[in-house]
Amino acid sequence: MKSYFTTGQFARLANVTERTIRYYDKQGLLKPSFIMENGYRKYSEDDFIRLQRIISLKQLGFSLNEIKMMDIDTNHTAMEESLQLQIDLLDKKIRHAQLLKDSLVQTKQLLRQGSFTWDKMVSVLQLNTEEEKIIEHYRDERHLSIRISLHERFSQNSQGWFNWLYQQIDFTEAHRILELGCGSGELWKQQPLNMRNKEIFLSDISQGMLESTRKELGEAFNYMQIDANSIPFKQEYFDAMIANHMLFYLNDVTAGLKEIHRVLKKGGHFYCSTYSKQHMQEINQLVKEFDEQITLSDRSLPQIFGLENGGEILKQYFSKVEKRLYKDALSVDDAQALFSYIMSCHGNQMDMLSERMEEFKSFIETKIEQNGAIYITKEAGVFVCEK
Q1: Where in the numbering of this chain does the HTH merR-type domain appear (predicted)?
Q2: Are residues 214 and 352 in the same domain?
Q3: Domains held by the chain: number
Q4: pTM to 2 decimals?
Q5: What is the pLDDT of residue 168?
Q6: Which single residue of 16, 22, 115, 243 has CA 20 to 30 Å from 330?
């Protein structure tokens, strides 16, 4: 039989103030299991688990708005995932704290010995600001995982994007391969690639992302932190290069393509994917219907490099350019999954919805109830280029 607690009992048990409990209730983070006729709020053991997760995430550096968008379940699997997340983040913080301590001790010794340099102080200052990057990496990794999950769960094409993209790549003569912006390494997971006589470099601008990918894929690959606008390899080094949905994120697409052309061998192939202006348009329409001021991206990525203009851009650098399209659509009948996807985007939705998250969730649920599911257009593809 479940035990229930009043607000005061619940607060004392969790070692927080009643004010904190009331604030989390007001913010929609922690609602009581039920409210009695006399207005007394009753909290359960499941609510205690939810509170523990909220407090832990807050202590790890997440804002309440970020925690709001997380699906805080209390089932066994969700609890295990939450505990593992906290363990992983704390491990990274411990390693960082030890590195910072060692650096401070060394700097102190150099100061006493009279051999102190300002370069050393700069490195200490940089280490002091590294901790926020640990949380920032988790945000990026989690958001990427959310977006991939929506496509995997609700795509109408059972082949899957990464399987399809992998099959577009000709590995027969490709011995040295570089993927730019590998993210979580999804392209290479569970793929039957014979690594004999092959050197595959997975790169990303985020060192934290690379560490997670290395942990997932192992040491069969080479991992490098690379800015695609400045690739640290000699001319004509690679047989094949891959950029999956990443060219439009570059600060300078022209500079990036010049670098890609420089390090790719003559006769080598460059595989770069993107999407059209119509891709996922129904999601934009959905948020605009709720609030016209919401934008899910701070810039139009397909205008920078999309299926419509990508071919003409690439023809300036490659002798052959072929566009291959991936046929698919989404049919989403899970409001929480769609809500999480929207909140993971790069726009202003976090700020615009911070006080209206529950209202927005209800809005999505109503749309799904009315239509059975929300149909979402997908228009993505890959350009296969030859130098």
Answers
A1: 4-73
A2: yes
A3: 3
A4: 0.72
A5: 96
A6: 243
